[in-house]
User: What shape does this take?
Amino acid sequence: MNLYVKELRSHFKSLVIWSVCIFLMVLLGMIEYEGYSSSGQSINDVMGEMPQALQAVMGISDMDLSKASGYYGLLYLYLLLMTTIHAAMLGAVMIAKEERDKTTEFLFVKPISRTKIITTKLLAAFTNIVILNIVTLVSSITLVGMYSGDEAVNGDILMTMAGMFFLQLIFLVFGSALAAVKKQSKRASSLAAGVLLLTYLLSVAIDLNDRIEMLKYLTPFKYFEAKNIMFGGGFENIFVLLSVVLIAGLTVVTFVFYKKRDLNVAL
Assistant: This one.
């Protein structure tokens, strides 16, 4: 329990910063939506004039951006990028920070097994991503609701948050597995963020070229897209199953390699 509390405290300031950024992202996004709506411009026409490549990068699809739900679907992609980057870096840092801070010896002289250490660290990381997900959920329901009028949006937001949580878990354990496998675990957080951005770019490439659509199974960003969750009938079973397999497999990798790795101690 002491280790769990210690981990929570060490990431508290970071969690507050990420939470504030999430709130501001939703707030500014909905203020922008209100600006388009009150100006009399057709936001669908404005966005439609952009080059196709730019539309793909921005996550613009067939959603009706003149509605609060459609605009939130666009905003969801940026929220997803923020929360998954947070999760990937958190998973890596949870493993690497003892070596980074030169506290490895202090930790391992305690009467506690490596299995318990990694379990406690992952539980603390899990708590962090749950809190950030809840912050995103509450911010979205509150702020989108202020601009949605009579349109029902809460159900759609709840569905997108469930999809976001799957991706947060995937990238959390991906970051932890990467840090456990790498000899120089201090570089794992930047590498995890780099791989995450590559999977996002792959999802953009798929949107631009239908011939590589089969590659969608290689990028989690195609698993829970807003246009499918909100306007396409909800989750696809294959992507839910694939997410569970990835989470379980990467968690096993984290435990196995963490128990075997040679830890760098302070000299």
